[in-house]
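Hi L.,

As promised, Glutaredoxin domain-containing protein:
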Amino acid sequence: MMRPWILPVLFTLSGSLVAAGLIARGEPGEAVALLLLFVLLAGVNSPLVFPRPTGALEAQRRSAVDGRPVVYWRPGCVYCLRLRTRLGRDARRLHWVDIWRDPAGAAAVRAANDGNETVPTVVVAGRPHTNPDPEWVRGQLLP
């Protein structure tokens, strides 16, 4: 459960240390600006940016019922963040599986990518697509 939070915690701690050093040198304005930057980086790399993840088996079951794609992702992945931000509100219409929280999801990604945990891997109608264009994914959503 802690693995997805390692990078955001490191960003926050690093930013705090840098800010403390700048405050000690008498530069509070720069300290605040850098701390905000590090907190922003922590937020962007946290699981909070993504819709609530489901387990791989549950996502596959739901996808079979409603036809919506399943997205396998992990926190800290820039390509996953790119997909998430470019989809905007449409991201909530997908089933998101965090492979760091769900071993079955990680296994599904490895099976689709020759043993590699390459994300984002989007499964549409049972066919995996590794790091697809966000506009293509949007086009796969049913009206």
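The helical segments are 6-24, 28-44, 56-66, 78-87, 103-112, 134-139.

Thanks again for sending the construct details.

K.
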